[in-house]
Design goal:
The complex is a heterotetramer of chains A (about 250), B (about 280), C (about 425) and D (about 325).
Chain B lengths: L1 E3 L7 E10 L4 E7 L12 E6 L3 E6 L10 E6 L3 H7 L6 E8 L12 E7 L3 H13 L7 E7 L8 H9 L4 E6 L9 E2 L16 E6 L2 H13 L7 E4 L15 E2 L2 E2 H4 L2 E3 H4 L7
Parallel strand pairs in B: 8-9, 8-12, 9-10, 10-11, 12-13
Antiparallel strand pairs in B: 2-3, 2-7, 3-6, 4-5, 4-7, 13-16, 14-15
Chain C lengths: L4 E5 L9 E8 L2 E9 L6 H5 L7 H6 L6 H16 L5 H32 L4 H7 L1 H22 L8 E2 L2 E2 L5 H28 L12 E6 L10 E4 L4 E2 L5 H4 L19 E2 L2 H8 L5 H9 L12 H26 L15 E9 L2 E9 L5 E7 L1 H22 L4 H14 L4 H4 L7
Parallel strand pairs in C: 6-9
Antiparallel strand pairs in C: 1-2, 2-3, 4-5, 6-7, 7-8, 10-11, 11-12
Helix pairs in contact in C: 4-6, 4-11, 5-6, 6-7, 7-11, 9-11, 10-11, 12-13
Chain D lengths: L2 E5 L3 H11 L1 E7 L5 E5 L25 E8 L4 E4 L1 E3 L4 E6 L1 H15 L5 H6 L3 E6 L24 E6 L2 E6 L2 H7 L28 H6 L6 H8 L5 H4 L7 E7 L5 E8 L20 H15 L1 H4 L9 H5 L6 H13 L1
Parallel strand pairs in D: 2-7, 7-8, 8-9
Antiparallel strand pairs in D: 1-10, 2-3, 4-5, 4-12, 9-10, 11-12
The chains are: A alpha/beta (about 250), B alpha/beta (about 280), C alpha+beta (about 425), D alpha/beta (about 325).
Bound molecules: flavin-adenine dinucleotide (FAD) and iron/sulfur cluster (3 copies).
């Protein structure tokens, strides 16, 4: 196709860079993708930069005043803004500390030099600026990223599933872990990963965040039956979804 | 031996002959298929596909006797409808169908027809209105009630003017909320029903609108003493296949795509999920 | 004529994470010269507090997506040591296989996507697509192979799924392993030799700069030590891993959210070059031959050679992958049953492995319910920062003397920082300061 | 009825024999060592002694995910998917309730416009049944599928002491036996299996019970536990709902129209543009599933659209049990 290439910028905030890596790890797909998009801003991979873009992909959560400034600037420059990965979409693992006193944590880690490192409560990008679409997951599934890109390039703003991981787990034919007493979060976690973890025998730990109307009361009962303490259940829920739980309460 | 499957899902190419932006969100597409006309009954729908994006069920809005082409009116509501809006004359979309049970225009011969359309609900009704007007002598009175949220959302403005001009059509309209230059009725569509002077024994009401509208319209019609079997409704549901298999459009034991979308009210009054 | 230089690189590109280079020279006098880490703090140690033994690896994996396999391995070792969870020989073999894959994947990314544009004279790997498409093809293919190995063993390369305390929740089938082995023999090794050819052809573009320093890595092991060993120094000593604190000596510096470390000298270097300097004799013969083509032998003090050392390690790992798969296939693969519950005694455990960027320590103390009461992680990139600063402070005057202009100096300084392959996102974490 | 003995150790030989007659499918051990219906490449991998599979054999005739057609956006060409229609296909190790589940879907898929994928994939099959030992969830006899039920099967391997007694049920079945010499005399029978779960009402009463239970508080009660995760329907042999979607290749030209199983138990199942969800309450979805099994289709099919396999109970993380729900309704109705 000779259609004009879509100009794309990638921007990273506080995160582990796994999302960056997820992109460059699509070795088989990259050359084809680059026929349709032109990457105009990608600090990790290139030295030139441009702010003239059609869509900005944001990785990482917002954790400092400087982040807030920068994300506002990007929002102004980008007609479409997409969050990529758990950190930018739902707050991610950084939001573990939600509910704990920030100053205390800073003290714990930096001691009396904590004033050197200003920090805000961890926020997903949507808490600061409008987000047009999101790619969930920690890390995002390359297949999901490819699906997103093709749909996006075909002119649609792709939506993530609103149903839980179990649907995909059953499409794979897996026997349910939760039924076997293994505390799997798949029942309340947004699908789209293809039941990555349960298909490998590992419980889902909820990296894609909660589905709307997640039945958390039932989850607590099931997890208690798996032998988890209340503290462990809270921990599990707060691993990735701290921010989302806060929204619920 | 290798056999093809799912040929029922294969769309035919429909060429866009003309488009018209009707409101900010609704656009009309006049379509042409190679072996036209489509051969639809009023009230039936087609599955429109934009390859690579998806499919959406859309009612055929024009009457079957209006030449080889047919018309769809599409509201921008999501991916597929959005993609359709980006298409102009000369472009191609996929069409399969027509599907479903339409309005039983044959059976209604001789009857007075009361059309009640709320918002985009007028779109499927229009095919039946066309039919009635194209076979005008077969029917008694033709009364059309039309309501929209506000004046900006009024569809088919030119056609409405024509209906108003005709002395064999009675047309009444209202908007939920007016605007400074709106001179007509303000109020929900049910307010148009009580003043009507109907020949109760010989009237059939044909209703289509947003989910919330049905209950109130039917109540109003009942207080006019219309019987359950004098009311037809056309229902919308999530639909994926149009072939009575995917299950999305099911209301209790019925499949809207196959058993409907047009239902005789008496057939579904006890179907709990219907209205 | 006296010279005044002001270099200010904000958010240096083609490195993982956010860092700035700041150099001020006034009237030939070097006033400021350092590498600032401005990555937002992430507080991982605090995040670990109160977490269960089965969650530590899941959480610490997210310290760094690029080293996520290394973090998981180190974390699992710390947890297993602390709680005395037994690990089978098969588990260790598979973990080593996974580590080989992760080293390959990370090194290939760094050498070919992030560092190579410098020596090949283009601004990015994307630009390389036009100027040197074959190099890009090699990069993509070798990296795919490295990732395929990680996917097969770990379930996925980034934040692996299957690695849990005491073993694996899922293992690749013999067919998958056999297929990988063939591809490593038939594709990976030949491609790595081609990469070596390309780098050798531009070898003169690696700046000539040496500064004597200490190199620290794992060592004193039966094989080239990515997964196990004692702490080893080119200055001669070795230490048990649980005495790591006496080696790392972390301190907070004002210009950086990352802490600095030093051992006996003012700084030390970790990473591929450090490993190679400490363990040269454990490399495979083929890997040694590749090193020889670049004149690389222990002990080498040119930090730019770190990129070459990474390539040498790639060759080494590709060969050990083949050997390990043979070994596993011969033994036969048993499904593993890692414990789902663990009732242990409270305890402390230190885990250490070599991740692509150098030696990594995780140190956990667990209570009787299997929850973490205290955690500390010392990350390789941090250990390098002091050495980077000292390198820059030595390199700038040299460059001034060679009469370089600001642009050339900036280019060389960025290249120096990149040579260290800093992975800043993981560096931003701190120990509890007592 | 003709019965021949087949010693356990001869069973792989028999399967090998069948593999010479056609393509053999059956429950084979998958990666996680669980039996799963798939093509058999090696007789020893067939599991003849199993309680139930996670996914029902319907996956052979309506795969969890399948292509509807291939398309190219460039020139708007559409090419329907193809399946091989050749040769005899033999499904071994089928439990009698699963054969009945396939029959249910044969009926449903032929109603209205027939599902061509189902019809094409269902051609030329011979079903070889095997008896099973029920676990605590099976309740097939309660929906008319007792241990002696043989509907839809062509051969049956009745578990006996030391092996199987193979029953010849149809002509098609007979043709499979030609040329196999590994028979022994009929083996001593083992006692009929004991079922641990059951429905209290007669099958014919089930629709009547539901007819008066629409507003019953039980739906709300069950909804409190239900995760709306969809597992129950995804594993049900008589569920058939699916979602249709497009998958575009990265060349942005070619792609596929696909479908995969979907579940009426997840909230977005009935969502339409504008945000309206027609079955919004979890309770309405819980109810819908059970009405689909015992009323809606049953009213015209004439028998329950549930075969008592217990898969939904086994798969439910909330431990919701369709038999328990029906029994509670029956008790309440009676008392
Ligand atoms: C019988 C029938 C006739 C219809 N006639 C018309 C018409 O004449 N003109 C018109 O503009 N619209 C009509 N609709 C509605 C139209 O089908 C939906 O607006 C359209 O499917 C939305 O698809 P999308 O891809 O644009 O939105 P999506 O991006 O797919 O989704 C937007 C929302 O619509 C829901 N949705 C998805 N698929 C369907 C579906 N098949 N039906 C309903 N909602 C869906 C989604 O769950 C989501 O909430 C009709 C619907 C039915 C069932
Ligand atoms: S294993 Fe997890 S994701 Fe899979 S069905 Fe069970 S709860 Fe759902
Ligand atoms: S299974 Fe759960 S934890 Fe694993 S990738 Fe999917 S959503 Fe994330
Ligand atoms: S409803 Fe449950 S028991 Fe009945 S057929 Fe379906 S899965 Fe089996």
């Amino acid at each position: 196709m000779t259609a004009k290439k879509v100009r794309v910028g990638f921007f990273d905030f506080t995160g582990c860079e796994g999302c960056q890596l997820a992109k460059v790890s699509m070795e088989n797909e990259l050359p084809q993708i680059l026929e349709h998009i032109e990457i105009v801003n990608f600090r990790e991979a290139m030295s030139e930069k441009s702010w003239d873009m059609d869509v900005a992909f944001i990785e990482g959560s917002i954790t400092t005043p400087a982040c807030v400034e920068r994300i506002n600037r990007i929002r102004q420059a980008a007609p479409i803004l997409v969050t990529l990965g758990a950190c930018s979409t739902i707050g991610g693992i950084n939001a573990i500390r939600v509910g704990r006193d920030l100053d205390e944590i800073r003290q714990e880690v930096y001691g009396d030099k904590r004033y050197l490192f200003p920090s805000l409560p961890v926020m997903p990008v949507s808490a600061v600026v409008k987000v047009d679409a999101s790619i969930y997951g920690c890390p995002p599934n390359p297949k999901d990223v490819a699906r997103f890109l093709t749909q996006f390039l075909a002119g649609k703003i792709p939506q993530a599933p609103k149903y839980p991981v179990c649907i995909e787990c059953k499409l794979q034919g897996n026997a349910c872990l939760l039924v076997q007493g293994i505390p799997c979060m798949g029942v309340v976690t947004r699908a789209g990963c293809g039941a990555w973890c349960p298909s490998k025998g590992q419980f889902c730990y909820g990296c894609r965040g909660l589905i709307p109307d997640a039945n958390l009361d039932a989850l607590r009962i099931s997890f208690e039956e798996c032998g988890l303490s209340q503290q462990e259940i809270d921990n599990k829920l707060h691993l990735f979804s701290g921010r989302e739980l806060e929204k619920l309460s | 031996m290798v056999v093809s499957i799912h040929s029922g899902y294969v769309p035919q190419q429909a060429k866009i002959v003309r488009t018209e932006q009707m409101t900010a969100a609704e656009k009309l597409f006049e379509l042409q298929i190679p072996d036209g006309p489509l051969g639809h009954e009023p009230g039936q729908f087609v599955e429109v596909s934009i390859l690579g994006v998806g499919e959406a069920p859309i009612s055929v809005s024009s009457g079957p006797n209006r030449g080889p082409n047919f018309e769809l009116i599409v509201r921008k509501a999501g991916s597929v409808t959005e993609a359709m809006h980006q298409l102009g004359a000369g472009a191609v979309m996929g069409i399969r169908g027509p599907y479903g049970h339409g309005f039983p225009m044959e059976r209604l011969k001789g009857s007075d027809l009361l059309f009640i359309g709320g918002g985009i609900g007028l779109v499927p009704l229009r095919s039946a209105i066309h039919y009635a007007l194209d076979h005008r002598s077969d029917y008694g009175r033709v009364v059309i009630l039309y309501g929209t949220k506000n004046p900006n959302e009024i569809l088919f403005r030119r056609e409405i003017e024509e209906w108003k001009q005709r002395d064999d059509v009675e047309f009444f309209m209202t908007v939920d909320r007016g605007s400074p230059d709106w001179k007509g009725n303000v109020g929900v569509i049910t307010t148009l029903i009580p003043p009507l002077d109907l020949n109760i024994t010989n009237t059939t009401a044909i209703v289509c609108g947003p989910p919330i509208m049905y209950k109130f319209v039917i109540m109003a019609l009942r207080s006019k003493r219309l019987e359950h079997d004098q009311i037809y409704v056309s229902l919308e549901r999530h639909m994926k296949c149009g072939l009575g298999k995917c299950g999305h459009c099911q209301i209790n034991h019925l499949y809207v795509c196959q058993d409907g979308p047009v239902f005789l009210y008496s057939d579904i009054q006890d179907v709990k999920e219907a209205l | 004529m006296s010279k005044t230089v002001s270099i200010n690189v904000e958010h240096i590109t083609r490195v993982e994470g956010h860092g700035n280079i700041v150099v001020r020279v006034r009237d030939d006098k070097l006033e400021t010269c350092h590498f600032e880490v401005v990555e937002a703090p992430r507080f991982f140690e605090a995040m670990l507090k109160g977490r269960s033994w089965y969650e530590a690896a899941i959480i610490t994996s997210r310290i760094c997506g690029i080293c996520s396999i290394g973090h998981q391995m180190t974390s699992l070792k710390a947890t297993e040591t602390a709680l005395k969870i037994p690990v089978s020989e098969q588990t260790v073999l598979f973990r080593k296989l996974l580590v080989d894959g992760s080293i390959l994947s990370s090194h290939l990314l760094h050498v070919l996507f992030l560092a190579a544009p410098d020596v090949l004279g283009v601004p990015s790997a994307f630009a390389l697509m036009d100027s040197n498409p074959h190099a890009v093809e090699l990069a993509l293919k070798t990296k795919r192979l490295a990732n395929d190995l990680c996917d097969a063993v770990g379930g996925r390369m980034i934040h692996p799924i299957t690695c849990v305390p005491g073993g694996f929740t899922d293992l690749p089938t013999p067919e998958v392993l056999r297929d990988l082995k063939t591809r490593y023999e038939k594709e990976m090794l030949p491609m790595l030799f081609e990469v070596a050819d390309i780098l050798e052809s531009v070898a003169e573009n690696f700046p000539d700069f040496t500064r004597e320093t200490e190199f620290i890595s794992l060592g004193d092991a039966s094989e080239y030590p990515f997964y196990d060993g004692r702490i080893a120094s080119t200055d001669g000593e070795t230490y048990p891993v649980d005495e790591y604190l006496s080696v790392t000596n972390e301190t907070i510096v004002d210009h950086s959210t990352a802490k600095h470390t030093h051992n006996k000298r003012a700084s030390y270097m970790v990473g591929a070059l450090a490993r190679l300097n400490n363990n040269f004799d454990k490399l495979t013969d083929t890997a040694k031959q590749v090193a020889a083509r670049f004149g690389l032998a222990a002990v080498n003090h040119n930090p730019f050679m770190n990129n070459v050392a990474q390539l040498v390690e790639c060759v080494h790992c590709a060969q050990t992958v083949i050997g390990r798969i043979d070994d596993l296939l011969q033994r036969g693969i048993e499904p593993e049953k890692p414990p789902r519950e663990w009732k242990g005694k409270p305890g402390r455990g230190v885990g250490s492995t070599e991740v692509p960027r150098g030696i990594l320590f995780h140190d956990y103390t667990y209570d009787a319910t299997g929850r973490i009461v205290k955690a500390n992680c010392v990350i390789p990139t941090n250990q390098n920062f002091a050495n980077v600063d000292l390198d820059m402070q030595a390199f700038v005057p040299e460059m001034l003397q060679r009469g370089m202009d600001d642009n050339a100096m900036q280019f060389n300084l960025e290249m120096l920082v990149r040579a260290y392959d800093p992975c800043i996102s993981c560096s931003v974490h701190m120990v509890k300061v007592d | 009825m003709k019965r021949r003995g087949l010693l356990s150790q001869k069973a792989p030989l028999f399967i090998r024999h069948l593999m010479n007659k056609g393509q053999v499918y059956g429950p084979v051990k998958n990666k996680t060592q669980m039996p799963e219906f798939a093509q058999v490449d090696e007789p020893s991998r067939v599991v003849l002694d199993y309680t139930t599979t996670v996914l029902p054999p319907k996956r052979l005739f309506q795969p969890p995910e399948e292509t509807i057609y291939h398309f190219s956006r460039k020139d708007f060409t559409v090419e329907p998917a193809k399946v091989s229609g050749d040769g005899l296909k033999i499904l071994v190790g089928l439990h009698n309730y699963d054969a009945e589940g396939i029959a249910c879907l044969d009926y449903q898929m032929a109603r209205g416009p027939a599902d061509e994928g189902w019809a094409a994939r269902r051609r030329n099959w011979v079903f070889v049944g095997v008896s099973y030992e029920p676990d605590q969830h099976h309740f097939s006899p309660s929906v008319g599928i007792g241990p002696d039920h043989r509907n839809g099967l062509d051969l049956f391997m009745d578990k006996a002491d030391g092996g199987y007694n193979v029953e010849l049920l149809t002509e098609r079945g007979a043709s499979l036996l030609d040329g196999f010499g590994g028979w022994s005399a009929p083996l001593p029978e083992t006692p009929a299996p004991k079922f641990h779960n059951r429905l209290l009402p007669m099958p014919s009463d089930l629709p009547h019970i539901l007819a008066r239970s629409y507003e019953h508080p039980i739906w709300q009660q069950e909804a409190k536990r239900c995760f709306s995760c969809g597992s129950c329907t995804m594993v049900c042999p008589t569920c058939y709902c699916f979602d249709v979607f497009d998958e575009l290749q990265l060349d942005m030209e070619s792609g596929e129209k696909k479908r995969h199983w979907d579940s009426c138990q997840v909230a977005p199942f009935t969502e339409v543009a504008g945000g309206e969800i027609f079955r919004k309450e979890t309770s309405s979805r819980v109810r819908h599933r059970i009405y689909r099994k015992f009323k809606y289709i049953t009213d015209h099919y004439g028998r329950p659209f549930c075969i008592g396999c217990g898969r939904c109970i086994r798969a439910c993380p909330a431990k919701i049990s369709i038999s328990e729900v029906m029994n509670n309704l029956a008790r309440k109705a009676a008392g």
